[in-house]
């Protein structure tokens, strides 16, 4: 059996050369996940792309032909498709220049450092002169913009968070805004070898640590935590946090020494909390009206936090929402008021329940990467502004203190991502995708994005190619030998780009004359030489091993311990060198939706707003797959109801609508609607509906606003979380749910699209 790394874990497999015949979790993993079952079952699924295809209208009428997303595909040979794509790239680069090509190509693709799809496409486009890129992520777009202003870097919380083993040893109280979801911390970009969420939580609990989970979903924290569930109204965390701050201040529990020495701007913030600036005291009675929680419990929680070694944890999901800046910033401010930042087990985390690598101690060495080269284009967009960019070329917009202009994109090149899964308001994206002249997509599967392309190039899965890989902060660096032959006539992204580059005349620049095997050896040897560590094996020894265990210099790392010990010698990289409770920089931007210190701002779509849509949809990460990956796999399919994604609703809300467990329901708002299968569950707060992301978008051919399968992004708004970040706010939306009484439409996306033979 050979080990293989995925973003969701390591498995061992046997193969007959074409398919995996046996799969079991890697024996080193204490908490393996069932997501590994999706791989073998999806590999040869009918939705696997078996060869190159071109959209009929584009092939017959050329670039810009109408019908994208609605037309059949024509199977073509590799020779033909290489001719077509290289000719089209030459035309667009020649006529419009590199600034007309969008290569942001956001997406998680697969584990494996060399075949990392974004690195591949970026290197290729850089060889042609560059491309318009995207910055930041759908995961963390708010944090990546806000936290440099407040604490200096987002990366600190990802790479240098206080180790989970330290929490086990020292933390007395974990206050988890957004919970500590084991389904989220089962994955990590690049892979995870040893899952440990339940293990560390159980160990902390056994030592006496208490957990409080503040979330609309009870199961956002594992049972091992035996947590108190505080089921607030979604989107109201900022109000709760302000009231906690008010109690700490009023009761004299704020650590003045810490605030004086390590922060700036506290007085301006606390003036707002006291009501000095707007006449509203942000006390528990005020927060009770917003959050739906009792003022008494808010008051006692603040006191408990001050009396214990407390870790305040804010999940990534909270910032993936309108005004997501506010609870994130307030989490830091509360931790500063408690004065425990830099102490073992205390302070702020972001987030131990959002990704497997958070709380794993930093590695002494990074692992090799495929170099991307230099981009000749400086124009960029915040990643979640893709539809705005395509719809509004030449229009200005604000972002993080800058005034930027949307470029005029003629060609979109996507490799390793699924915007028709990950973006909000998919019907709007469908319209936006009519604008470019050409869309090229590489994927292994007929995702909705592949179906919105003009040219579809079939990529291999990671089990079908040689690679190596390791997740961020993961201890193990794995050789990843191909387990099977490629499906059909699919090729590695590298092979596709190498041939296109050769055809265009930049083959040498792209490949540097190396095969995949030569690249793996070269990158490894270069990395090893840079380390100068005799413990690191030679390439051949590494390639024949199961994995190499990377050194960890400080297994008991405590975030900000240096800063706390000596703030003059180890200042933060903020303008003041301290934690910025008030940011002159942000204040200077003058954005009405992001003032200079955190505040409570009412979102457009929350349960406090009076609308025709009385349910708050929580569109969170799925439990049975990673994002939309391998949605046709056995584990993902095992929870579908009548082929639709499950939506959970509280028993009272189901009864009020005459709905029963297992019903097919229609979820709708003014942007769109989708079908889903109902699960009645009191783990969901009343007035909340939970529908995870990831069901492949399956629009009615006559109506892109209606998804027959259950993708929540037909319902979410394409509205930035803030002017500051311009990031994704897809986590929450207002909806209504009703029984679906019509004839049930087929879920067509689980079959390949229609194809036609070439006319001439
Ligand atoms: P994936 O499903 O991982 O989603 O969005 P993302 O686009 O990353 O897409 C990866 C694609 O790459 C898959 O189609 C897969 O088949 C393909 N692929 C895998 N390996 C390879 C390869 O080697 N080569 C090629 N060419 N293709 C490959 C995820 C995004 O969704 C993220 S990160 C977040 S956090 C957001 N979360 C939410 C949310 O909470 N709520 C809503 N409503 N929306 C969200 N969208 C975002």
From TrEMBL:
Named cofactor requirement(s): Mo-bis(molybdopterin guanine dinucleotide)
Span of domain Molybdopterin oxidoreductase: 48-502
Domain Molybdopterin oxidoreductase N-terminal: 4-44
Keyword Oxidoreductase among UniProt keywords: yes
Keywords noted in UniProt: Metal-binding, Molybdenum, Oxidoreductase
Record domain Molybdopterin dinucleotide-binding: where: 615-728
A Pfam family of this chain: Molydop_binding
Coiled-coil features, chain-numbered ranges: none
Entry similarity comment: Belongs to the prokaryotic molybdopterin-containing oxidoreductase family.
Protein name according to UniProt: Molybdopterin guanine dinucleotide-containing S/N-oxide reductase
Organism name: Nocardia vinacea
